[in-house]
Design goal:
There is one protein chain. By secondary structure, this protein is an all-alpha fold. The chain has one domain (about 1-60). About 55% of the residues lie in helices and about 0% in strands. The relative contact order is 0.06.
């Protein structure tokens, strides 16, 4: 089966080149139009919790 695909590709170089250029073009367009939000935020996540526990030491509250 792979031999027939290779044979077809060799005989139809124009179509293979056209498909390759289309894929490169679509990839470039996708890269240009990908929103910035799609890139993950790699910064450290921090959560700040404010609470009160009157009369207790900070170690106990923690």
């Amino acid at each position: 089966m792979i031999e027939s695909i290779i044979r077809w590709s060799v005989h139809n170089r124009f179509f293979v080149l056209l498909a390759t250029l289309m894929l490169v073009g679509i990839g470039g367009w996708s890269l240009k139009n990908t929103p910035v939000d799609a890139i993950p935020d790699l910064s450290d996540v921090q959560v700040i919790i404010k609470t009160s526990y009157p009369g207790q030491a900070p170690q106990v509250v923690e």
